[in-house]
Amino acid sequence: MYNILDFSLDKLKQWMKDNKESEFRAKQIFDWIYKKNIWNFEDMSNIPKNIREKLNNSFYIEIPQVVDVYKSNLDDTFKFLFKYRDGNIIESVVMKYKHGNSICVSTQIGCRMGCKFCASTLGGMIRNLTSGEILAQVLKAQQEIEDRISNIVLMGSGEPLDNYDNVMEFLDIVRAEYSVNVGQRHITLSTCGIVPRIKELADKNLQITLAISLHAPNDDLRRNMMPIAYKYSINEVMDACRYYINTTKRRVTFEYALVRNVNDNNECAKQLIDLLKGLLCHVNLIPVNEVKENNFKKSSSDNIKKFYNMLIEAGIETTIRREMGSDISAACGQLRRSYLESKNDLKGV
Ligand code: SAH
């Protein structure tokens, strides 16, 4: 049995052909799934019964179940806990803005990157999500909010470039007209910096935004926060970014989580400026979300402001991330963990 959401239109057409059915059925089926939110073959009234039977024998449509929805009291942020058919739980966050709705999707169940400040990685990685499972987060969220999603960020649990093939397939399908039809420029992929994959992604020459979780301006400090920094130096990451910029002509975003007494002093700001000066980039400063399992504390608002001002004065385009949904633990992996804890189901997570 296949999850039909893992199939592209071409692949489903081929399947129809192999099963002696007309190829145009593939588009009809996807219209039901993507345009009408009909997620069982029985209700696809223009598909003949014998084809529906064949479909039922070969495919399922995996839409995760909503285990819980948390709505922020501070802003229009919704956090969904989704459960897949194998029982695994992930989280997706939807942010409603005036200019459109944005979703932050998870790409893996758990994560194996080990960043010290992040809740998603605490129990390691359970498994990759398939392209269809990532896509289904978007479909289910659209149904729940009764509105279209126009922006996607791959910034939930998991490292997208550690699940490269499935994530690339997801990007292909979610952008397609027959599917969700999200524009490339409305998609951001965030990575802790897996250098060879960044280059591979650049070679695909997509117009998506690449975001790099930098978080530190030198290797020593970065290694204290992110194990991946032992594998790839900041120089190598920067080379890959320059390659991405030169190939795609797209501006790269650098994420920098400000942690009190760790990476928020003047010296760090100076080093960061030296690193990024002249690059087509944007810095997103994120007051670190405090996670109970570690000691990373948020920088003071004074320090955040000072850090921000130094970057701006040096001519580096910078924003301070608004803390959306901070009352509902909207940071990576926090909700899944507390849910599993409450169910006493941590199984090493
Ligand atoms: N693995 C990818 C994407 C998922 S994490 C990556 O590393 O980019 C999405 C972003 O949230 C990353 O920038 C990550 O470093 C950041 N993040 C994780 N935990 C955080 C926390 N407690 N506070 C602030 N940002 C955090």
Describe the structure.
This protein has helices at about 10-20, 25-35, 50-60, 130-145, 165-175, 195-205, 220-225, 230, 235-250, 265-275, 300-315, 335-340; strands at about 1-5, 60, 65-70, 75-85, 90-95, 100-105, 110, 125-130, 150-155, 185-190, 210-215, 250-260, 280-285, 320. A hairpin with a 5-residue loop joins β3 (about 65-70) and β4 (about 75-85). The mean pLDDT is about 95. The longest helix has 15 residues, at about 130-145. The strands form three sheets. The protein has a ten-stranded mixed beta sheet. By secondary structure, it is α/β, with parallel strands linked by helices. The protein has twelve helices and 14 strands. The chain folds into two domains: about 1-60, DNA polymerase, domain 1 (Orthogonal Bundle), CATH 1.10.150.530; about 65-345, TIM Barrel, CATH 3.20.20. The radius of gyration is 21 Å and the shape is globular. S-adenosyl-L-homocysteine binds next to β10 and β12.
Q: Structural class from helices and strands?
A: alpha/beta
Overall number of strands: 14
- Tally the helices: what do you get? 12
Helix/strand order, N-terminal first: EHHHEEEEEEEHEHEHEHHHEHEHEH
Q: How much helicity do the residues have?
A: 25-40%
Q: What average pLDDT do the residues reach? A: 94
Q: What is the CATH class name of the largest domain?
A: Alpha Beta
CATH architecture of the largest domain: Alpha-Beta Barrel
Strand content: 15-25%
What's the N-to-C terminus distance? 29 Å
CATH fold annotation of the largest domain: TIM Barrel
Report the CATH superfamily of the largest domain. Aldolase class I
Q: Number of domains in the coordinates?
A: 2
Strand order of the largest sheet: 3-4-5-6-9-10-11-12-13-14
